Amino acid sequence: MNAYRKLTAAGLRAFFRDKTALFFSFFFPIFFMVMFGSLLGDHKASDTQKFPIGVVLQDSSPTLSWVPEVFKKVPMLEPHVGTLDSEKEALRNGKRRAVIVFPGDFSQKMQAGATSEVKILTEPSQQQASQIAVSIAKQVLDKMEKQMSARTPLLETKEESVTSDKPNEAKPRQIDFMIPGILAMTIMQLGIFTAIPIVNMREKGILKRYGATPLPRKTLIGSQITMRLIIAVFQTGVLLLMGVVFYQFRLVGSWLGLLGLVVIGALTFISLGAVLASIAKTQEGVMPLVQLTNLPMLFLSGMLFPSELMPAYLRPIINILPATHLAEAMRAAVNATPSPHTIAGNLGALAAWLVACLLIATRIFRWE
Amino acid sequence: MTAILVEDLVKSYGGVRAVDGISFSVKAGEVFGMLGPNGAGKTTTTEIIEGLRSADSGRAEVFGIDVGKNSAKAKEKIGVALQTATMMPNLTSWELLDLFGSFYPKATSPDALLELLGLTEKRNARVQTLSGGQQQRLSVALALVSDPMLVFLDEPTTGLDPQARRQLWGVIEEMRTQGKTVFLTTHYMDEAERLCDRIAIVDSGKILALDTPERLIKSQFAERTIQFTPPIELDPQTFSDLPNVLRVAADGGEITLFSDAVQKSLAALLERAETRSIEIGDVHLRRPTLEDVFLKMTGRRIRE
What we know:
The structure holds 2 protein chains of 2 kinds. By secondary structure, chain A is mainly alpha-helical. Chain A has helices at about 1-15, 20-40, 45-50, 65-70, 85-90, 105-110, 125-150, 175-190, 195-205, 205-210, 215-245, 255-280, 285-300, 315-320, 320-335, 345-365; strands spanning about 50-55, 75-80, 100, 120. Helix content of chain A is about 65%, strand content about 5%. In chain A, strand 1, helix 4 (about 65-70) and strand 2 (about 75-80) form a beta-alpha-beta unit. Chain A is elongated. Mean pLDDT of chain A is about 85; it is low at about 45-50 and about 165-170. Chain B is of the alpha/beta class. Chain B folds into 2 domains: about 1-220, P-loop containing nucleotide triphosphate hydrolases (Rossmann fold), CATH 3.40.50; about 220-285, YebC, transcriptional regulation domain (Alpha-Beta Plaits, 2-Layer Sandwich). Helices cover about 30% and strands about 30% of the residues of chain B. In chain B, strands 6-7-8-3-9-10 form a 6-stranded mixed sheet, with helices on both faces. A 4-stranded antiparallel sheet of chain B has the order 2-1-4-5, with helices on one face. In chain B, helix 6 (about 160-175) links the parallel strand 7 and strand 8 (about 180-185). The radius of gyration of chain B is 24 Å and the shape is elongated. Classes of the chains: A mainly alpha, B alpha/beta. At the A-B interface, helix 1 and helix 10 of A face helix 2 and helix 3 of B.
């Protein structure tokens, strides 16, 4: 028991002194989190994405002063009122996405109940941004038209999210989707990267040196697993704390459920790491093998990118990968995102991988 | 009491017999050396006795415990310094000794071991910052952590500077004084000659000879040599009639006399030089060493 305790403590000590290990276990996921956090964090879309448009009133009638106000009320637009020439110039220089031109006889025709022609000018070189600005402007004009003609609308649209049925609860944000994904990535990599220190220990004769002592192998294996579980829980804690402090992250699920999932996920991937360590023959050979396992899972599993983006023929593979199930279960546990496979299905798949990897590792693991 | 008993040990790797029927025994309190070139089967034999490998056939015992059947029990009784001394690089010397101490029922204090091996200054230094020689000494300290009565040292002084080597010899002699049994493999003949009570010379998985260093040399070389350089070139045959001189040889200006009774030959040589007023400088005696024994038995030098 004393040997087990000291071996675990020594392993942790060695881990926290190893700068490469720390980089991949903490800095790397934190870097991902900050990167995604600043891209899609708690900024509202309106803060970052405002489309500058020009509004030109060729009719100088003072009764039309309300027109620019209408555009100012739309959060995604940034209207500039000017003459036709100055706004055209600004559009050409890329300072406007679109320019809306109200004709000189606008108020006259409005009073007469006749149709006015409103022109929307765009610059072809910035087509995409213009299209969005134009469609917003068209919606505004449409609404204006309805109000001016005082028709009762026959249809009214209202957007509603299906996930948040409680009115007080804030809508799920992108960062809430990212954080469990990064957690899953961290646990997966901790487990898979276990192969590297194991091969090191074997190639450098450290395992052999332990073998020359009465230390039972099960104590050595047990302490290696314990040490990595402690690191996994610690990583989870650090990442969630970062999320809470910097991105107002809220845990929707239960802490206990999350802890259980971290443990099962870490065990599964540690045993996968042990399989890789058994296959790799040298220190040079283990790194490519680790990345060959890590990278496809990282991209296919939906940890960082929605797996819906992947081609359909990859779907059977995606559905088998343990990383997919860890990511889905993690999302379900952290912010109650419904899992496509049900949580029981995810846990079952992880357990199956765990048992399979353990069986393989105990058969093919080489101590020297 | 017998510390190590090895009977007809055989181990093959892919058809090659690395250990080919080795038998010997080591008495408790003995310093026993195994000498042989790389690939002779030294390390394989050692690792079978240490319980790190299983033999194809034959038997190894330490203190009466069959290593093949009860290796955990056997490992409790022994201390091991492996040839490749790499240890967890991110731990300090003290932490490493403390950790390994926890694997045994009782352990020597890390500080006492660090002092014994002259590593007190490196107590809090991480293993990866230690020099090769310091790591080597730390590896020997690890072998002593359980205060074992049988210690295996696989090439413990390889790569050490002369001072560190001498210090380690002192440590091994101290082990002998304490009544510990030491099983040593080495490439250094002077080391084996100086430290070992008995030596086994191994080649191609077999023991060629096993005896005290003294008797190994005597059994192979009846004669010793007297070498000297006269001021002018002399016919070496001038000295061939000296008592007990079996033959003479000359190499450049230096004359070598081979004698089966050095004292008599030397006295006669000095007397003749005196009466003939020949000033002979640089007289020295050389006895054959284990190196010569090894060369004669295997046909090659131990380090090639």
